[in-house]
Design a protein that fits this description.
- This protein folds into 2 domains: 201 residues, Enolpyruvate transferase domain (UDP-n-acetylglucosamine1-carboxyvinyl-transferase, Chain); 207 residues, Enolpyruvate transferase domain (UDP-n-acetylglucosamine1-carboxyvinyl-transferase, Chain).
- It contains 14 helices and 23 strands.
- The model has no long low-confidence stretch (mean pLDDT 96).
- The strands form 6 sheets. A 4-stranded mixed sheet has the order 21-22-1-23. The protein has a 4-stranded mixed sheet with strand order 2-14-16-15, with helices on one face. A 4-stranded mixed sheet has the order 4-5-3-13, covered by helices on one side.
- Strand 21, helix 12 and strand 22 form a beta-alpha-beta unit.
- With 418 residues, the chain is an alpha+beta fold.
- The structure holds uridine-diphosphate-N-acetylglucosamine.
- Uridine-diphosphate-N-acetylglucosamine binds next to helix 1, helix 5 and helix 6.
- The site of uridine-diphosphate-N-acetylglucosamine has 22 residues, from helix 1, helix 5 and helix 6.
Length: 418
């Protein structure tokens, strides 16, 4: 049975925390480690169940992985398999980035379609058509994808119909050792894309334009060993900021890239939080009662991140006045709404729009997390609520937040796992 978090709400959080390395950077970098055929030292690699799932895939493929503290060392010299069993693929949706990596290494791969998930259908059509453009022949049979490229992958111009983060990563991984030049037009611009490029370039790849709409990859023959530090997790940073905001607290966050947080800062400031950024850290001081966050639209970077939407909704739920949240990225990302309403929030959802009328207080009840970010948001709501909140489905939160309740406890929260 899944574990639960019991939270005694109503305590202002105060203190200082160092933010973990980014999950969404670490996962494609682990796939990239498989392409190198050598040894990769990955520092600030967060301890998460999603990272464990990626390590299980690497080990299945024949790679070795060893962790010491926050550092993970991957040796892919012994990689000998090009298939991933369905069970391992289904442990984590983003395992699809291993497809580009395995194709780059061996020229063929057999993986499973990841299928839908809690937050939406999440098709992979953009990934597959891009890999086909690079020369892969892909056949789907009973949910398995059989991919091969008889003459090796060849660079080409690929225009994405949407700046998909995962598809951009898959193309980068596949193209890095392809013959010739690959150009990705309408590429995702997320900081995690820049981090993947900086890891690959450190290994000897020739990628330019990451973080911009057009990325150019000049294929190289081989990659080398490299030591890389994963960027700070901007989503986790925004979650802790929201924890301070909804409890009227004050928090200093270390290991942040302030620029990566620009897309969320204006909403926090609009709510009345005082934010003082400095190099590599940031302080947030919440007002006694939050103001509304106005209208927030989730968008690809540098727009407001869909992964911070649920935390922002908890802020809006407790704010003075009405806020509007429009979810443009995933079609099923309001699953936390029903649980917040049971805690006393006033939220109305119509398709992709949530209208949130702030209330003075939420009250503790038993709620159930059904996805990672929505689950973390329910914990935030519990921290602010009167009485005790129990959040079930904690395994969703463990996918992406390292030592979540321990960190919150360091800030004064009364929270325990059972
Ligand atoms: C990544 C992040 C996730 C974040 C999301 C959007 C990781 C491990 N996960 O997910 O936390 O919420 O970016 O910032 O980095 N789509 C298609 N066809 C495709 C690919 C995507 O229709 O082939 C759609 C998706 O269903 C979704 C939208 O495009 O509606 C965005 O998806 P994408 O950017 O690919 O997100 P992920 O890489 O899955």
């Amino acid at each position: 049975m899944s574990e639960k978090l019991a939270i005694e709400g109503g305590i202002s959080l105060e203190g200082e925390l160092s933010v973990q390395g980014s999950k969404n950077s670490a996962l494609p970098i682990l796939a990239a480690a498989a392409v190198t055929g050598g040894s990769s030292i990955i520092k600030k690699c967060p301890k998460l169940t999603d990272v464990d799932a990626a390590v299980r895939i690497l080990e299945y493929l024949g790679c070795k992985a060893a962790r010491t503290g926050d550092t993970l060392i991957v040796d892919s010299s012994g990689m000998c398999r090009s298939d991933i069993p369905k069970k391992l693929m289904h442990e984590m949706r983003s395992s699809i980035v291993f497809l580009g990596a395995i194709l780059a290494r061996f020229g063929n791969a057999v993986v499973s379609t990841p299928g839908g998930c809690e937050i939406g259908l999440r098709p992979i059509d953009i990934h597959l058509s891009a890999l086909e453009a690079l020369g892969a022949e892909i056949t789907e049979l009973h949910g398995r994808l059989y991919c091969s490229c008889r003459d090796g992958l060849r660079g080409t111009k690929i225009t994405l119909s949407f700046p998909s983060v995962g598809a951009t990563e898959n193309i980068m991984l596949a193209a890095v050792t392809a013959k010739g030049t690959t150009t990705i037009i309408n590429a995702a611009r997320e900081p995690e894309i820049i981090d993947l490029a900086s890891f690959l370039n450190g290994c000897g790849a020739r990628i330019s334009g990451s973080g911009e709409g057009t990325i150019t990859i000049d294929g190289v023959q081989k990659l080398d060993n490299y030591e890389h530090t994963v960027i700070p997790d901007r989503i986790v940073a925004s979650t802790y900021m929201a924890a301070a905001a909804v409890t009227g607290g004050r928090l200093k966050l270390d290991n942040v890239v302030v620029e990566h947080l620009y897309p969320v800062l204006s909403a926090y400031e609009k709510a009345g939080c005082l934010i003082t950024p400095s190099h590599g850290s940031l302080e947030i001081k919440a007002p006694r009662r939050l103001g509304g966050i106005g209208a927030v639209r989730t968008m690809p970077y540098p727009g407001f991140p869909t992964d911070s939407q649920a935390a922002a909704m908890v802020m809006a739920s407790l704010a003075r006045g009405t806020s509007v949240i429009i979810e443009n990225i995933f079609e099923n990302r309001f699953k936390h709404v029903g649980e917040l309403v049971r805690m006393g929030a006033k939220i109305m959802v119509e398709n992709i729009v949530a209208v949130v009328e702030g209330v003075e207080r939420l009250h503790g009840v038993e709620v159930e997390a059904s996805d990672l970010r929505g689950g973390a948001a329910l914990v935030l709501a519990g921290l602010a609520a009167e009485g005790e909140t129990t959040v079930g489905g904690v395994h969703h939160i463990d996918r992406g937040c390292q030592s979540f309740e321990n960190n919150l406890r360091l800030l004064g929260a009364k929270i325990k796992r059972s």
